[in-house]
Amino acid sequence: MKPKIIAFIVLGIIIVLALVVILIIKLTDNSSKQIEITKEINAGIPYKWEKRMELIDEIMMNISEYITDQMAVSNCLYIILEGYDIQKKSTDIVKYQGEDNQYLIRKFLVAKKIKGCTDRTLRFYGKEIPKVLDKIGKPVIDITADDVRIYLAYRMREVTPTTADNELRCLRTFFTWLNAEELIPRNPTINITAIKRAKQQKEAFTDIEIVQMRNNLKTSRDKCIFEMLISTGCRVSELCQIKNSEIDGDHVVVHGKGNKDRIVYLNAAAQYALHNYQNDRNDVSEWLFPKKKEGLLLHEFQRKDIENWWMDANTLDLNNHIDKGTVESRIRTLGRKLGIKAYPHKFRRTCATNALRAGMPIEMVSKMLGHEQIGTTQIYLDLKEDDLKMMHQKYVR
């Protein structure tokens, strides 16, 4: 054979042997990897694709009731997640300085107290803010917008949109103050929009319901409470805090939200009921409606006197006024007796609706109720299609 041919044959044999060696090494390497993967799985260490499968299964379980073609969505998720490594977030308990959170909450409440927030508002902040922060489980300074969104997403499964939005507004107020005081570098709630809630216009009392309740009031005290609520449109908390010295003829000074005082007015019926009630009183309390003494048992009175127990000065705590619960109980009891859905705030809505129907500008209605924004007043109004028709006939020519 010629030397050239022999050389080519030898070269070919060398190349084939090299390829065989490479193939053997490759197969051995793949086998080793497969063994390692098998060992990991057998040892309980989740493999990346297995974690993708777990994530997809969990997503499908949570959204299955909202989609029709589950297979198509599942396939899309497989394709999208192909280029990602999935690692489940650690569920280990994270220790954080709860004391730091409590310190910031205390500073916030003190600042709001100085600003003039009511005790009721402060109690709301003091209850809701710690509850939310404990759920999030992080120091305030580390909380992000995603933390807040995740909390709200879970919360929406448990409560109404109104409750969730109230918690968000509370949290937003807290973080806005912290950021303004430079206690945190950023406000995590600044880009979180309010939760949409259904705007339901609640009904006012009808004229017949007002007459029915008025005719079933037994005492001058109950009549005074009834007529003052329907005439002034004041909040029941404002009514409870009225002092005798704050009444001057047909107008009364009431203390509204945020310690903002305003004047409300009494119509003829309210003035007459107030006059009769004042004549029946036998006490010297500074409050228009003094509180009942603690531990007083009404069943000790004669049946004929049980409704007018307040006419005996010895039954009264002269240093304190009645609370909202007392007024609400009386009104709800009256409503149940007559088959009417009655509660104190409905008087406020009724006063506003009747005033607007009679021609009072909505700006004045808003001022009467102590609202800062007319939009709030509009929610109170119970206007029907007939009201619009009447106003159209009156004003549009």
Instruction: Decide which structural class fits the backbone.
Output: mainly alpha
Share of β-strand residues: 5-15%
Multimerization status? single chain
Order of helices and strands: HHHHHHHHHHEEEHEEHHHHH
Average predicted confidence as pLDDT: 79
Q: What is the top-level CATH class of the largest domain?
A: Mainly Alpha
Largest sheet: 3 strands, antiparallel
Number of domain units: 4
Q: In CATH terms, what is the architecture of the largest domain?
A: Orthogonal Bundle
Uncertain spans:
37-47, 91-96
Order of strands across the widest beta sheet?
1-2-3
Task: Label the overall shape.
Answer: elongated
Description:
By secondary structure, the chain is mostly helical. It folds into four domains: 1-38; 46-84, no CATH class; 98-180, DNA polymerase, domain 1 (Orthogonal Bundle), CATH 1.10.150; 207-395, Intergrase catalytic core (hpI Integrase, Chain A, Orthogonal Bundle), CATH 1.10.443.10. Helix content is 58%, strand content 5%. The model is unreliable at 37-47 and 91-96 (pLDDT under 50).
Put the structure in a nutshell.
The protein is mainly alpha-helical and 397 residues long.
Question: How are the SSEs ordered, and which strands pair?
Answer:
Blueprint: H1 3-42, H2 48-63, H3 70-81, H4 98-115, H5 119-136, H6 145-155, H7 161-180, H8 207-215, H9 220-232, H10 236-240, E1 247-248, E2 251-255, E3 261-265, H11 268-280, E4 290-292, E5 316-321, H12 324-338, H13 344-357, H14 362-369, H15 374-380, H16 385-395
Antiparallel strand pairs: 1-2, 2-3, 4-5
Helix pairs in contact: 2-3, 4-5, 5-7, 9-11, 9-13, 13-14, 14-15
